[in-house]
Design goal:
Belongs to the GHMP kinase family. IspE subfamily. With about 290 residues, the protein is an alpha+beta fold. About 30% of the residues lie in helices and about 25% in strands.
């Protein structure tokens, strides 16, 4: 099909990308940093909706829409136009609406997740398909985090984001995300790193039978961007302290380049933990989920 007229409206859920661990293992000659990371996707995210229209347009709504312009620089429009070009098709006639629920520049891949969502949506409703490797290359050209957001499943990410391998099934757990509503510059974090040649992740076991075994593994990992981020944005330390002080928290850490931090807990504990953090810090953005892929 060439447009949405045959299938009505459609939508995609763009889950947040959370780095449970993030090791920086080197830097390429072109300046890109090499990573070794464990990535999961909780049921917390932006929503993308499409309806048939006379042309391609984008409207941005939601609590974090302020400051985001629906112009040609927006990654959602770049993604769908790049896909159309790669498929040899004209721009799809779609009215896109992005409900922006995730904080911007917050270390949880919101923009990349949105770009990946529109690629999935265009494939499903506008018939714009590419072979898997070509789609992954196109996604990588849009941004290093876009390929991992395509399938929204737990993976080990290596290289600059192009090498993905599925993780063994993870046990059930709850997760709480907290952002102090402060944007952090990823380039500034990379520039401030003191060491760019760190160890890779420990060997991943064949399976994580219990949440205790997953937490034990993660305790031997780290986020190599966290110390620099805390130095440049001290409120991150306050977020981590608030999360670690909660008795239900089994592990707390910063995701990506921050300032979003997470706490892992037993499934069922996440909503209470989130409510206490929100009550004690009403200005912070807090979200929780026990559905993690």
């Amino acid at each position: 099909m060439s447009d949405l007229s045959m299938s009505g409206s459609a939508g995609e859920f763009a889950r947040a990308k959370v780095n449970l661990a993030l090791h920086i293992t080197g830097r390429r000659d072109d300046g890109y940093h090499l990573l070794d990371s464990l990535v999961v996707f909780p049921a917390i995210g932006d929503r993308l909706h499409a309806e048939a229209a006379d042309g391609l347009s984008l409207t941005i709504t939601g609590p974090f829409a302020v400051g985001l312009a629906p112009n040609s620089d927006n990654l959602v429009l770049k993604a769908i136009r790049s896909l159309a070009t790669a498929c040899g098709q004209p721009e799809p006639r779609l009215a896109l609406t992005l409900e922006k629920n995730l904080p911007v520049a917050s270390g949880i891949g919101g923009g990349s997740a949105d770009a990946a969502a529109v690629l999935r949506l265009a494939r499903n409703i506008a018939g714009m398909t590419l072979p898997t490797l070509e789609l992954e290359r196109l996604a990588l050209q849009l941004g290093a985090d876009v390929p991992v957001c395509l399938d929204q499943c737990a993976v080990r990410l290596k290289g600059i984001g192009e090498s993905l391998s599925h993780l063994p099934r993870l046990p059930d757990f709850g997760i709480v995300l907290v952002n102090p509503r402060v944007a952090v510059s990823t380039p500034a974090i990379f520039k401030g790193l003191e060491n760019r040649n760190n160890s890779c992740l420990p060997e991943i076991p064949a399976g994580f039978e219990t949440l205790t075994s997953l937490i034990s593994y993660l305790e031997d990992t780290r986020n190599d961007m966290q110390a620099t981020a805390e130095r440049l944005c001290p409120v991150i330390s306050q977020v981590l302290a608030a999360l670690s002080a909660e008795p239900q928290t089994l592990l707390s850490r910063m995701s990506g380049s921050g300032a979003t931090c997470f706490a892992l807990c037993r499934s069922g504990d996440e909503d209470g933990l989130a409510a206490r953090i929100q009550k004690s810090h009403p200005a912070w953005w807090v979200a929780s989920s026990n559905s993690v892929t």
